[in-house]
Design goal:
The complex is a heterodimer of chains A (162) and B (166). Chain A is an alpha+beta fold and 162 residues long. Chain A has one domain: Thiol Ester Dehydrase, Chain A (Roll). Chain A is built from four helices and five strands; from the N terminus they run E-H-H-H-E-E-E-E-H. Chain A has a five-stranded antiparallel sheet. The radius of gyration of chain A is 18 Å and the shape is elongated. The N and C termini of chain A lie close together (9 Å). In chain B, strands 1, 2, 3, 4, 5 and 6 form a six-stranded antiparallel sheet that branches. The longest helix of chain B is centred in the middle third of the chain and has 16 residues. The chains are: A alpha+beta (162), B alpha+beta (166). At the A-B interface, helix 1, helix 3 and strand 2 of A face helix 2, helix 3, helix 4 and strand 3 of B.
Chain lengths: 162, 166
């Protein structure tokens, strides 16, 4: 198996230019299935994510309906950005400055944008470190997610012929 | 009233709520929580999570590809590791709070593979009343997750709105 044939021809360390802003091609409508399934799967016990009745009746309720778990909003936006920023990723190193700015409800659609913040050569001849800032925007142009993510990306010079 | 209605009426009037979750007043800086349950992550968890979130890095969905990069199995998507450790912490930290506001300084410390079990614990690092949201405080915790061999796998700081009791 030739590894490089399984992914896009770009997305390598050399392909990113600091300051560039990428608009990712696909969006995703976040459904009840996504929210309830992943919330329950990771054993998040806050029933504001899976009890519609309680959310409608809550006296202090600020939403009036189930709200999508913020960890899913973040994961969905990173996922939407992944095809352009994670296909050549050898290792996720970390995230920082994650902000959840606007709630997401069932039926809302998320789109992702990525800004290239920083590149560092690191100590590996086959890979380098890139810091991205990912943005998640909904169908009404509201910013829902803002997060920095640092990854170890393959170098094209080493991996593209393998 | 029918028998069923009588039963429901009795349940509602005589039962005592076994409450879950903590309020703002329950948190003090330095306080430590070891969270419940633990969670063994499976191959299907990893596949389902990675595909539902459109996270198309073949490391998480193609065993042969992962093996070609030196992995003994498909590594678990780090975002699933984050969500699982977060999920285990919710009852103690934020179950009856409000929305989760943000995360700082998240580091992935070690690969996780299917069949491994994650545990979580947190320490309160800050607590203050929210100036723009009456009835709520903002609490920040340092949460860490580790595996069945007591090896650290993830660490992060999270802030949440938490309801005050009074």
């Amino acid at each position: 198996m030739k590894i490089a044939a399984l992914t896009s021809g770009d997305g390598y360390f050399e392909d990113f230019e600091v300051g560039a802003i990428i608009r990712h091609a696909r969006g995703k409508t976040v459904t009840e299935m996504d929210n309830v399934l992943i919330t329950n799967m990771v054993m998040n016990t806050a029933h504001g994510h899976f009890n519609e009745d309680a959310m409608k009746k809550a006296a202090q309720g600020i939403f009036g309906q189930r709200v999508v778990f913020g960890g899913i909003n973040l994961s969905m936006v990173i996922g939407l950005a992944a095809q352009d920023t994670a296909e050549q990723c050898l290792r996720e190193l970390g995230m920082d400055k994650i902000r959840l700015l606007s709630p997401v409800f069932h039926g809302d659609t998320l789109y992702a944008y990525t800004e290239v913040l920083e590149k560092s050569e690191g100590d590996r001849s086959d890979a380098g470190v890139v810091r991205f800032r990912h943005y998640g925007v909904n169908q009404d142009d509201k910013l829902c997610v803002d997060a920095e993510r640092t990854v170890l990306l393959k170098r094209k010079s080493y991996w593209s012929q393998r | 009233m029918t028998t069923s209605e009588n039963t429901v009426a009795r349940l509602k009037s005589e039962s005592k709520l076994r409450a879950r979750g903590n309020r703002y007043e329950d948190f003090s800086v330095g306080q430590h929580f070891v969270h419940h349950w633990g969670r063994t992550l499976t191959e299907s968890d990893n596949m389902l999570f990675s595909t539902l979130t459109l996270h198309y890095n073949p490391h998480y969905t193609n065993a042969a590809y992962a093996a070609a990069h030196g992995h003994p199995a498909t590594p678990v998507n780090p975002l699933l590791v984050f969500n699982t450790v977060f999920g285990l912490s919710v009852e103690d930290l934020s179950e009856i709070g409000g929305p989760f506001l943000g995360v700082e300084e998240l580091s992935y410390l070690r690969d996780v593979y299917p069949g491994e079990t994650l545990y979580a614990a947190s320490e309160v690092v800050a607590a203050r009343l929210a100036s723009n949201r009456p009835g709520h405080g903002i609490v920040t915790w340092h949460t860490r997750g580790w595996n069945q061999r007591d090896e650290a796998v993830i660490t992060f700081k999270r802030a949440n709105l938490v309801r005050v009791r009074s």
